[in-house]
Design goal:
Blueprint lengths: L1 H20 L11 H45 L2 H6 L5 H25 L25 H8 L7 H6 L12 H5 L3 H12 L28 H10 L1 H10 L1 H13 L1 H16 L7 H19 L7 H9 L3 H11 L4 H28 L1 H30 L3
């Protein structure tokens, strides 16, 4: 179809030239009104054809982008573990399942609070669905990297400048809560969430690597906790926490596989050729994090403050006042803005170098091949526990 249009456009252009050239004889070339009208019509038609050509080419390109991105996404959904656990196989069904789970949770919380003498209006969180649109969905991976790098420092200003959404979330329980006395608010909080949890980094019960680790101390309590237990959320979260070390081990096995080590070495050599001294992509992320840390820390008005000092500051603020408080805290000084601009420039160049070296070392394909093999062995070793997790997720 595109070739036909090109030929047709060329023919019309030739006709336009012939009409103009054949207008007179002798030495002068004259153009009649009719000839001018015909030539103008042909010119307009030629421009229209060219416009259609451009649109058609853009549509073909969009289709190619879509096919490329979808194929890449589908590839990772077909790994043994994704297939075994049912991850990403039916996004619509998954979304419907979790929405229904949340609806049931809200109803159970409402019933529990009522039994304790408090009102609780179930909240419909599905109203947030309209925020699920990806504004970068039309960009290929390369186009995104060219414009936004990894999306770390480059998204900073976008997040700050993003206008508030037209949609306004209204929590039906906030007005009720605000009408309570201080003593009633404390009773409400304890009924809803249980006793306040004091996080202690030195307490081995909070350390997943310790033999004394107790995930129970980290689980929700009160009416919210009861609802999660009734729906199996508690059991599912607990099972995943207890299985976390095995998944971490799987990831380490994939990254330490000789084929991945070889690919990372080739990547590192390629990056060195572009001026970056990095032994692995993990080093790259740590490098960027170190460069951004002063900016992130400056945004936190409560950095290094204990919770008991933070709560009194926020408890007398309305949600709107809290939003404004944090918005003001996120404003950068000229010095930090200059630092952010430097990090952006560095990130964009680094991300493009990583993209090219990643292709040269074929890291994505190597990782996919390695991951397939290790996942199969992982399922063979832990299949029974994985099946239990799958059942707990309702798949």
């Amino acid at each position: 179809m595109r070739r036909t249009r090109c030929v047709l456009t060329a023919i019309l252009a030739v006709i336009a030239l012939l009409v103009t050239a054949c207008g007179g004889g002798g030495g002068e070339t004259t153009t009649t009104a009719d000839q001018t009208e015909v030539a103008g019509a042909v010119d307009e038609r030629t421009e229209e054809q060219a416009g259609e050509e451009e649109v058609a080419e853009e549509q073909v390109r969009d289709e190619e982008i879509t096919e490329e991105e979808v194929a890449e996404e589908e590839r990772w959904q077909e790994t043994p573990l994704a297939q075994f656990m049912g991850w990403g196989q039916s996004p619509e069904d998954d979304a419907a399942y979790w929405q229904e789970q949340d609806r049931k949770r809200q109803e159970l919380v409402s019933e529990c609070m009522a039994e304790q003498g408090f009102a609780w209006v179930p909240v419909d969180y599905s109203q947030f669905e309209e925020f699920g649109h990806d504004p970068f969905a039309d960009l290929t991976r390369e186009e995104f990297i060219e414009q936004y790098g990894f999306g770390i420092s480059t998204m900073f200003d976008l997040e700050q400048e993003m206008p508030p959404p037209d949609f306004e979330f209204v929590d039906p329980n906030w007005e009720m809560y605000e009408s309570l006395s201080d003593a009633e608010k404390e009773a409400w909080d304890r009924t809803l969430h249980g006793e306040p949890m004091e996080w202690d980094e030195t307490d081995p019960r909070f350390d997943p690597t310790s033999d004394e680790f107790d995930p129970e101390v980290m689980m929700p309590q009160g009416c919210w906790g009861e609802a999660e237990r009734a729906l199996g959320d508690y059991q599912r979260n607990l099972a995943w926490m207890e299985f976390e070390s095995e998944f971490s081990s799987l990831w380490q096995q994939i990254e330490n596989d000789p084929r991945m080590v070889e690919a990372q070495t080739e990547w590192s050599t390629c990056m060195a050729g572009q001026g970056y001294t990095l032994t692995s992509q993990e080093d790259m992320w740590m490098d960027l994090e170190e460069r951004m840390m002063p900016i992130w820390e400056a945004q936190d008005p409560f950095a290094n403050m204990p919770p008991e000092e933070i709560e009194p500051i926020l408890e007398d603020m309305t949600p709107e006042e809290q939003d404004e408080f944090f918005r003001q805290a996120q404003q950068l000084t000229p010095e930090l803005q200059a630092r952010l601009d430097e990090v952006k420039e560095y990130e964009l160049a680094l991300a493009m170098a990583d993209y090219e070296c990643n292709k040269q070392a074929d890291i994505d394909d190597v990782r996919f091949e390695v991951q397939i093999e290790h996942e199969r062995a992982f399922i063979e070793e832990h299949g029974e526990r994985l099946a239990e997790l799958r059942e707990l997720e309702g798949r």
